[in-house]
Design a protein that fits this description.
Layout: H1 7-15, E1 17-23, E2 25-26, E3 28-29, E4 32-42, E5 47-49, E6 62-65, E7 71-77, E8 82-86, E9 89-97, E10 100-109, E11 116-126, E12 128-129, E13 138-149, E14 156-157
Parallel strand pairs: 3-13
Antiparallel strand pairs: 1-4, 2-14, 4-10, 5-9, 5-12, 6-11, 7-10, 8-9, 11-13
Length: 169
């Protein structure tokens, strides 16, 4: 049996979840709010716990930005999970994400944000499981390119299919 430190298990955990980043504006004018979506594709047959798992010992899914000076986090928006029962937990449904899930960040480019292209680093933390076992929890680095422009620059709305209004929880 492989230990949690086994490299094949760790690479397996990263292989079943594929994150992709999208920004709402290009460029982002100084003094403007914008959004960043991290769309996470979860391999068929796997799930990961929602941001609010049903049990305290379960690893929640989180997205944590490491923002450079001039970019500020306004809000992190996690979708609701789905309650599902698994063979290892037949009596209690677990709150999970399956298929594809969209995590969103509302950000602000302050008036002192550096002009030009920057890469926003993010850390996606999750634990991927199937109906038989859970892989070790992992933290995956994700990046999002953003172009910051002078205040008053007219931005172009990009990826509008992702950045529709958020329904209330």
């Amino acid at each position: 049996m492989a230990s949690p430190q086994d490299g094949s298990l760790l690479s397996g955990a990263a292989a079943v979840v594929k994150p992709h980043t999208y920004v709402s504006l290009d460029p982002v004018p100084r003094g403007s709010e914008f959004q960043l979506a991290v769309v996470v594709d979860i391999a068929r047959g796997f799930h990961m716990n929602s941001h609010k798992p049903t049990e305290a010992f379960l690893i929640p899914t989180t997205i944590t930005p490491q923002l450079p000076p001039g970019i500020q986090l306004v809000e992190t928006i996690y979708p609701r999970g789905r309650l599902e029962k698994f063979s290892f937990s037949p009596d209690k449904a677990l709150d999970v994400y399956t298929g594809s899930v969209e995590l969103r960040l509302r950000l602000s480019a302050r008036t002192d944000a550096p002009l030009g292209r920057m890469i926003l680093p993010l850390a996606l933390r999750y634990q991927a499981c199937n109906d038989a076992a859970c892989l070790p929890p992992v933290k995956v680095s994700v990046t999002a390119p953003v172009e910051v422009a002078a205040a008053g620059t007219k931005p172009r709305v990009v990826n509008p299919e992702l950045f529709r209004p958020t329904p209330p929880n």
